[in-house]
Amino acid sequence: MSADKQPVALTAGIIRTDRTMADGRTIRYYDDGVVARTAVDQRQVDAMPGIGDLRLDPLVNEWVIVASHRQGRAFLPPKELCPLCPTHDNLASEIPESSYQVAVFDNRTPALTAPHEDFRHGVITGFDTPDVPAAGKCEVVCYTDQHEGSFGELSLHQIRMVMEAWRDRTRELSTLSYIEQVFPFENRGEEVGVTLNHPHGQIYAYSFITPRTQNMLDVAEAHLKKTGRVLMDDIVARELKDELRIVAQNSEWVAYVPYASRYPFEIHVAPRRSVPDLAELDDVAADAFPEIAKEVMQRLDGVFGIQMAYIGAWHQAPVRTGRDALRAHWQITSVRRAPGKLKYLAGSESAMNAFVMDMKPEQSAGQLRDVKLK
Known about the structure:
The protein is an alpha+beta fold. The protein has two domains: 8-41 and 52-212, HIT-like (HIT family, subunit A, 2-Layer Sandwich); 214-370, HIT family, subunit A. It contains six helices and 17 strands. The chain has helices at residues 156-173, 211-227, 231-242, 283-302, 347-352, 361-370; strands at residues 8-9, 14-20, 26-32, 53-57, 62-66, 102-106, 132-133, 136-142, 181-188, 200-206, 246-249, 253-256, 265-271, 310-315, 329-334, 336-338, 341-342.
């Protein structure tokens, strides 16, 4: 196995090195300075799964990804068999190196797969819309080579490295002709469906605009047309004016509980100088992100003194449309409402997408602010 490309210098002194895995997938190492990445993936080459389908749900005109090959993916293996830990004498993992800082690799069982060269985007034409290949990219973002811990427990510099990986992957994935939207996210906790406990996130790059993003885009474009202003800018301005729901802030970022939050603990983190996606975020904002990210995570875990299950989702503008209206921000949602109690998405939420909140967002924000940071 040989390096596909020469190491690339990014910002903050971070170097990216690409290597090819035994089965042809790519792994990308993000290092603090130049680090020789020469380890060879010695594992047996297994056949890669085929591409799934996009099927249209005609009731709501939404694409559903059908990827039956994912049934056999890893599920909560013990630490000694963790595929995200570095390779060592007793473990040949997804990471061939014996140590790493941040690593991003193509998912072994992806919901979305790079299509053939003749791929054409699916066009919704109504009830008889034909299936199309489930085109896209799915990547795993390993935050650290340490099995124990979480994103919020990383050092500030390590969080900055993860941010650089997010920026870099958003930038590169956006150049692919079949990609319409790039979505970095993290699931933490078995309560939200985590299948690997090693600190990590994922990136889904879709060949279509997801329903949530399309809805947000429609609203943002209508606001821009009506007022001449960017909706996210107005939202952040209102939160700063009201102050009641602010959780944390610094010179570049604002973290707040949204005015109409859907979850017991929901935090949005937005840059003060709004941008359509992470690729457009400047170095000053990227450098200031770790401080507020770490504080937000410490406050979330400090509410009940336990690790809170959450989904951390980066909402970004689509690659080719709506970039003047939609703005990048980080939404963190937790289903934990009390120690030993979860908010289950039951009838109204799951069936109707009509959320019911049992406490005021101002109360949630107050609990988060009251946490004593160490």
